[in-house]
Amino acid sequence: MTDHNANSAPAATPDIVYTLTDEAPMLATRSLLPIIKGFTRAADVSVGTADISLAGRILAAFGLADDDLARLGALTQDPAATIIKLPNVSASLPQLKAAIAELRDKGYELPDYPDEPTTDAEREVRAAYDAVKGSAVNPVLREGNSDRRAPRAVKAYARSHPHSMGAWSPDSKTRVATMDADDFRHNERSVVIPEAGTVQIRLVPADGGQPVVLREALPVTAGEVVDATFMSARALDEFLVGANAAAKADDVLLSVHLKATMMKVSDPLIFGHVVRAFFPMTFNAFGLVLAEAGLRAEDGLASILAGLDALPEGERIRASLQEELELGPRLNMVDSTRGITNLHVPSDVIIDASMPAMIRAGGKLWDADGGQDDTLAVIPDSSYAGVYQAVIDDCKAHGALDPRTMGSVPNVGLMARKAEEYGSHDKTFLIPADGTVEVVVTQGTGRAAGTVLLSHAVEDGDIWRACQTQDAAVRDWVHLAVVRARATGAPAVFWLDPERAHDRTIASLVERYLAAEDTTGLDIRILDPVAATRLSLERARRGEDTISVTGNVLRDYNTDLFPILEVGTSAKMLSVVPLMNGGGLYETGAGGSAPKHVRQLLEEDYLRWDSLGEFLALAEALRHVAQVSGNARATVLADALDAATTTLLEEERSPARRLGGIDNRGSHAWLALYWARELAAQTADADLAARFAPVAERLGEVNEAVQAELVAVQGHPVELGGYYLPDPALADAVMRPSAALNAIIDAL
Known about the structure:
- By secondary structure, the protein is α/β, with parallel strands linked by helices.
- Among the domains are: 16-143 and 579-746, no CATH class; 175-183 and 233-398, no CATH class.
- α1 (23-41) links the parallel β1 (16-20) and β2.
- α10 (280-292) runs antiparallel to α12 and α15 (471-488) packs across α16 (501-514).
- The longest helix is centred in the last third of the chain and has 27 residues, at 686-712.
- The radius of gyration is 26 Å and the shape is globular.
């Protein structure tokens, strides 16, 4: 598999495929991967790489690089597949355009992104780029359901070294604002497909015109759940006007929490509504001028401000925006010192990271003066807004959760076979005219051609979407929940909302498939998400664990929410995806903080990214290699790595928060030392012990000098030669600055 940032992997499939991604995880890989390759080589375990970065995916889309993502997708069907997946950029449109511009500056012949394609060629280019946008990687690789939990060492460390938690007041004004009608939750409809076949999605215009085909042919499988829903643009706008007024009246910060990266059609459109609702006078007066200049609310305030200098009326528009900023409610700030608001960039505030961080901080977010204040958290769709409100209510009533004593809420998430649940990008549409959207049988399905399976009366500007969940994925999900309940003894709670059509359908399947499982002695329940949240918090406050068994969106949300409260970050969680054909996918944590860490590296040569998730994933991947290959040495490596990781946590060798301390590179050097010592001391494999005894000795001898060397480089700007596609030599020089350490590692 090719790699624009490192040497290509060998032609044969390696035992472990380590993904090359973006931003801070990609930079950390420059330092950590040579250590991994050196140690694993000694145990006859091969490690290759696959480039699934945003830059790599763009180049592959236009035939300028091998398509490593497609190759990995095929590999997931191999029972021996062992893949370590680091966080990658789920690109918003501004990020995609920035990456395209950088690659063109580097000499790659790429077309511009056509915002409004008018020719077949432009439509083809747009489709190629759109396939790269958003969460393009995860659906390809996640050919299994998710088992995500806090490892024992991480949980023990959090209890003995608790992270800070902001104090909650019963008088806090912080609350969630969400729609109570005409959103995705309230308009949802669902159907189970009896037999395999094909359906079409079309819009029948209200004016009697010819149907407009939105999706020509959508394959469906036997037993598959197909859902459809829409959000009313009119209702959304009315809700947003009310939310702005409420934040102003309560004198709290207005914060908007979406996921414009993953829901790459619906949430950017909703974000555009949010921006227009905050600046109504400006868009009423200058909306046409902005549209003609290609300055879209969906791209955020920063994009609009950046384009105003080129407009004759630019200063008038800038003044109008500033006036409305002063008249409206105070905004949550992404960066107070630079004046970056919640509305500047759609991908800056991502709900699954931003809401837990706010809750951990005592219900407060940052204001324009660099202080913190209560907030009105605007989550337009009500599907899961109640989960966050339930946590806020619990904290107001009982105070902040205590990491020293609280239990854990691991997750079993439904995501196999592209289980969408929240609507997929290729089946989400901005409705162009009043009419009726229909999902119609074209072939098979056990129903006559022309049968309308699902339909909605819609208006111009509404956001309509469909999603699919395959029966085999649901069966595997239920089985995995039973396996985890049996292994842990904790209750397993399916979070399913009886008010949602999709959840009612899934609940009926859960009950059917549970009946075929051995659940003797297990506590397995089905609760609506709000009740499940309350139960999980009640048990957590007593120090008890509760497994949350959820669909794909709540998998995303819960695997940030509870870990951030329990252990301070979701990056420290163990994320195992048992692939349905027997392979293993091991994910390494969340990348929401990655851009911030890159900025600090560029300014100060200090990378705060914590690779703990990579350490945990690698140990599990090595155990899988031992299982499928019979190489017992892989297990020895894994056990030694886990022991080294425990020591690293206990000795507080993770990256420090401030310049002058251990950063990512220093943490890797400590891990290498501890790992070598554990291998030298173990008795399961005498050859490995003999091999690593001198390595441990040499690393111990130079460790003090290496750590001093790694600290000495800090405090100065560095050059990487690119953000999305750094220059390999420059990136290596920054991330491997210790000649003494490199000499030992490269000689392994």
